[in-house]
Design the sequence.
């Protein structure tokens, strides 16, 4: 069974940093692109970043470019999102999702982890 | 950047009715890059359709997708009580990035 479990969400002050993680199981993690999508409270979905199998290709939404870094550890079947210079508008539930290469979509999602940026 | 529009924001139906949801792109897109998701309150999104018309694993055949160019449609042939949710379309763009539509809530 494919499983994705996010962790690391917390209350952070504006300007602070945080790393959220996604532990995966039930599939060959190292053969998939992976992505982060977020959802602000009561709002729609916003794609944040994705990464290819070997970390050689990373893409970011303009809203997080230069502040967030996506990474992965294939030996631990884990995905990460390092977030710096956090702003109130980064407050959201952060989901990790699996991205089959030729589907241009996200077929399995975690349950999400809440990041709140507030003083 | 291509913008996705889903209107109206809310549609009201009764169980057993047919629902047709619209997703319009601001410019012509490749249908291979268009997907649909369902999200229920407190849950993660679930992939329904990819490549505009291919059903994801485990999705009932009452869900179907169609469209090309700038206009795409998700159809639920006969609404079940569990289908009342928010539906998002999503596009893979040339940046390369992904864009979601604002969503349509299917309400009773």
Sequence:
């Amino acid at each position: 069974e494919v499983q994705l479990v996010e962790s690391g969400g917390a209350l952070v002050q504006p300007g602070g940093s945080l790393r959220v993680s996604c532990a995966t199981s039930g599939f060959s993690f190292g053969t998939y692109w992976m992505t982060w999508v977020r959802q602000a409270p009561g709002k729609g979905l916003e794609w944040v970043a994705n990464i290819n199998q070997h970390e050689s290709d990373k893409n970011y939404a303009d809203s997080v470019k230069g502040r967030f870094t996506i990474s992965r550890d294939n030996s631990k079947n884990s995905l990460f999102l390092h977030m710096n210079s956090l702003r109130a508008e980064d407050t959201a539930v952060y989901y990790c999702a699996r991205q089959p290469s030729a589907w241009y979509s996200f077929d399995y999602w975690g349950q999400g982890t809440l990041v709140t940026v507030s003083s | 950047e291509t913008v996705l529009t889903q209107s109206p924001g809310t549609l009201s139906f009764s169980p057993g009715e047919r629902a047709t949801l619209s997703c319009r792109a601001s410019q012509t897109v490749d249908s291979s890059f268009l997907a649909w998701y369902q999200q229920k309150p407190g849950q993660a999104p679930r992939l329904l359709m990819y490549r505009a018309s291919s059903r994801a694993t485990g999705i009932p055949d009452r869900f179907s997708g169609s469209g090309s160019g700038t206009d795409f449609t998700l159809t639920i042939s006969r609404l079940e009580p569990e289908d009342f949710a928010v539906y998002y379309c999503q596009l893979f763009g040339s940046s390369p990035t992904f864009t979601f539509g604002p969503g349509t809530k299917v309400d009773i």
